[in-house]
Design a protein that fits this description.
Layout: H1 6-21, H2 27-32, H3 34-37, E1 43-46, E2 52-59, E3 62-69, E4 75-80, H4 81-90, E5 104-105, E6 110-115, E7 118-123, E8 130-134, E9 141-144, E10 151-155, E11 158-162, E12 168-170, E13 180-182, E14 197-199, E15 205-212, E16 221-223, E17 230-232, E18 245-252, E19 257-260, E20 269-276, E21 282-289, E22 294-301, E23 307-315, E24 327-328, E25 335-340, E26 347-352, E27 357-360, E28 368-374, E29 380-386, E30 393-399, E31 405-407, E32 413-418, E33 424-431, E34 434-442, E35 447-453, E36 466-472, E37 478-484, E38 495-500, H5 519-529, E39 533-538, H6 547-551, H7 560-574, E40 578-588, H8 590-601, E41 608-612, H9 623-630, H10 637-643, E42 654-660, H11 668-681, E43 686-690, H12 700-718
Parallel strand pairs: 38-39, 38-40, 40-41, 41-42, 42-43
Antiparallel strand pairs: 1-2, 2-3, 3-4, 5-6, 6-7, 7-8, 9-10, 10-11, 11-12, 13-15, 14-15, 15-18, 16-17, 18-19, 20-21, 21-22, 22-23, 24-25, 25-26, 26-27, 28-29, 29-30, 30-31, 32-33, 33-34, 34-35, 36-37, 37-39
């Protein structure tokens, strides 16, 4: 028997021994085999039988699917991936035995698979699948109506309809890329828009976007892979300039007719959050004015396109930004929930189709993200929302009459998926120190059993400790940060600091989650393994802290965000273990913009920085995003001047500027303008242009970027004596 008190000492000694035996994370492992390091979550999905789910497992001969009783955990073999692949090949599909194609259960014996350019039904055990729908092979977007009554596809910017009898019909004729486009995400995917095809719940009608891009000035995209380089057709709507004209059409599969929703041809509006009512008779959507301070939720007759009513309106002197279509309650579909931050946080409000406000459903200092499901008895709704700690995400249950709301999960982050009758949920859980797993929980939040834990190859390596920290902003607001310390951290030493920054609207990087799921996160973990403290802060202007926290940036992007990030660095310096002469910063997109703003606004604080795809002047960024936060350049010229990241003569630290030559989100011209200023001011800047890469680098370019960043920060941050700074002449 161990003497009293020795257990703790033994465990500490064991932990130290295991840490000493763990391997040091290598850059090759991060870049060449990231899938072995990223979290691998069990793959499970609910079946039509509310009491059962399917679980994908790996066997010696490949993946296979088991059918699981959700309450008892009893399993039975369903089918092997190889059997499904053979059945698809017998129906004419090109399909390998692995990986397993995505599928859904139609009933207890039949699965539905969308694969390649067709939709298949396979009765498990049969030698061949049957073709339900064949889609055009050149489609850039498609949507299948319920029960596969038809499919809509976008081919060369026009719409085609495919039906189960094998017929295919073109229904629009004036589409042309970069001029008029049908069925694609409009308004540059702002306002939560991620698609342009919307089918009704009954499978009869299709709503679709028609976007006329011709009012937007042409933009000279260049394909440098051609010889000589080839100009590519494109348009880019810049702040304060003409935008596209969007309308919504409705196709009726019974008579192949099209009606466009009634609209004012002179209005400059955003058409957002399109959906049908449950009976398919009406289309609901949110109309936002160009100034983005006024929202109308309107109902249209789906058969005629006539605008029936404006159900309600919202105003906000900063901005309105609807990002979710209404969620209709079961039982007739006359009532729906609408998400709005009108009381200071994002909450659900209950309306009927006459526009009457029936009450507020959720309340408190939390932000609702989305509706998960309605309870089978129609009295409650399950939602995903933050917790009392905004770094967490939870499953909540709220009475639809607004009388009660309760949190069903504890600690960390939780993402729920409901079964057919919302009596059971999958709960994907994780926390800062635990990659977590997947479990089944009852409607009251009680855990019924584990589906499986998350595997990550990172456990084989020596990882640094992760810690939360808080910083007080200039206005007294408490800001949340997180740091990763080097393995074997010694508080008596001084370490270099890398600030990883994003800081823009919609973002939240500091969460009670494992993370480490992508190349960026894994590379930051590698930087910590090289003896660097890596820190991140969510400044004011970011998400899930209430609308006032977000809107403080209005008309002045890059002001309070910089103040807060600088405050975070000074806080970390005061802890005593950060080397003040070796502080670097890195970010991409808005984070690239913030990298430049930080290095130009606090030049003596940062010895080096790497800015990826940065905006350097908001006048050259897209309409919807920029005007929401800055108004137009005509309305706010001083704000636009102040927010630029072009004061190159202020630069003192070593700067690496990176951009993709075919970036169509942040134009390459932003980087070119900065570099031109650097030349004019005699300021030395390192730069790298990735040929034909868009806003997110992929493939070899992504790996190349992280090797480039590793060398850059190795020379200018990790080195015991930082390289000389790039002072102007």
């Amino acid at each position: 028997m161990l003497p009293p008190g020795s257990t703790c000492l033994t465990l500490l000694a064991l932990a130290g021994a295991l840490h000493a035996q763990a391997r040091t994370l290598s850059l090759d492992a991060v870049l060449d085999q990231p899938e072995r390091l990223a979290p691998d979550l069990p793959k499970a999905q609910w079946t039509r039988d509310a009491a059962r789910y399917s679980l994908v497992l790996d066997g010696r001969t490949g993946p296979y699917v088991v059918d699981v009783d959700a309450r008892t955990g009893d399993r039975r073999h369903a089918f092997a991936a190889a059997d499904l692949a053979r059945a698809l090949r017998a129906a004419g599909a090109e399909c390998e035995d692995a990986p397993l194609p995505a599928f859904d259960w139609v009933d207890g014996e039949t699965v539905r698979v969308e694969h390649g350019s067709a939709v298949y039904l396979w009765r498990v055990g049969e030698p061949a699948a049957s073709v339900r729908l064949r889609l055009p092979p050149a489609a850039t977007a498609s949507a299948c109506a319920p029960h596969d009554r038809f499919a809509a596809s976008v081919v060369d910017a026009d719409l085609w309809i495919s039906k189960p009898d094998g017929s295919r019909r073109r229904i629009t004729w004036d589409g042309r890329a970069a001029d008029i486009e049908y069925g694609l995400a409009a308004h540059r995917s702002e306002f939560g828009i991620d698609r342009g095809l919307f089918t009704d719940p009954l499978g009869r009608r299709l709503a679709f976007y028609r976007e006329d891009l011709r009012p937007i000035a042409a933009y000279p995209f260049i394909d440098y892979t051609k010889s000589p380089p080839l100009a590519a057709r494109g348009r880019y709507p810049m702040a304060g300039q003409s935008d596209s004209v969007v309308t919504v059409g409705v196709y009726d599969s019974e008579d192949d007719s099209i009606r466009f929703l009634e609209h004012d041809p002179d209005a400059d509006d955003y058409w957002t959050n399109v959906c049908f009512t449950p009976d398919g008779a009406e289309v609901l959507l949110g109309l936002v004015n160009r100034g983005q301070d006024h929202l109308q939720v309107a109902a249209f007759d789906a058969a005629t396109g006539r605008r029936r009513a404006t159900l309600f309106e919202e105003h906000d002197s900063q901005w309105v930004e609807p990002e979710h279509a209404p969620w209709f309650e079961p039982g007739g579909g006359r009532r729906f929930l609408w998400l709005s931050p009108r009381d200071g946080h994002r909450h659900l409000y209950r309306y009927d189709l006459d526009g009457h406000l029936l009450g507020q459903v959720t309340r408190g200092a939390i932000d609702v993200e989305e509706v998960i499901a309605f309870a089978g008895d129609g009295t409650h709704v399950y939602v995903q929302a933050t917790g009392e700690d905004a770094r967490q995400t939870h499953l909540w249950r709220a009475a639809l009459d607004g009388s009660r709301m309760e949190r069903l999960t504890e600690g960390g982050r939780h993402f729920a998926t409901a079964n057919a009758d919302a009596s059971l949920f999958f709960d994907r859980y994780e926390s800062l120190l635990d990659p977590g797993g997947l479990r089944v929980v009852a409607a009251d939040g009680k855990a019924l059993g584990e589906v499986g834990t998350t595997h990550t190859g990172l456990r084989a390596f020596a990882l640094g400790e992760r810690r939360f920290f808080d910083v007080e902003a200039a206005d007294g607001t408490v800001l949340h940060g997180v740091m990763t310390l080097p393995p074997g951290f010694d508080p008596s030493r001084r370490y270099p600091l890398l600030l990883y920054v994003y800081g823009g609207p919609h973002s939240q990087l500091v969460t009670d989650s494992w993370g480490r799921a992508d190349a960026r996160a894994l590379w930051l973990e590698w930087m910590a393994s090289q003896g660097c403290i890596v820190a991140t802060l969510d400044n004011r202007g970011t998400r899930n802290r209430g609308i006032e926290f977000e809107q403080v940036v209005h008309r002045h992007l890059g002001r309070v965000e910089v103040e807060d990030q600088v405050a975070a660095v000074r806080h970390l310096l005061a802890l005593g273990f950060v080397d003040g002469s070796r502080v670097g910063v890195h970010g991409w997109s808005y984070g690239g913009y913030m990298t430049l703003r930080l290095m130009l606004s606090a030049p003596d604080l940062f010895c080096c920085g790497a800015a990826g795809a940065p905006v350097t002047d908001w006048r050259g960024y897209e309409t919807g995003y920029t005007e929401r936060f800055m108004d137009t350049p005509q309305e706010n010229p001083e704000g636009y001047d102040e927010s630029r990241a072009l004061a190159v003569d202020h630069l003192r630290g070593r700067l690496l500027l990176v951009h993709g030559s075919d970036d169509r989100t942040v134009m390459l011209s932003h980087a070119m303008t900065f570099l031109d200023r650097a030349v004019a001011n005699g300021v030395l800047v390192d730069s790298m242009i990735y040929p034909q890469q868009k806003h997110g680098l992929v493939g070899a370019s992504r790996a190349h970027l992280y090797r480039l960043l590793s060398r850059f920060f190795g020379e200018h941050l990790l080195a015991s004596s930082p390289a000389p700074r790039s002072d102007p002449k």
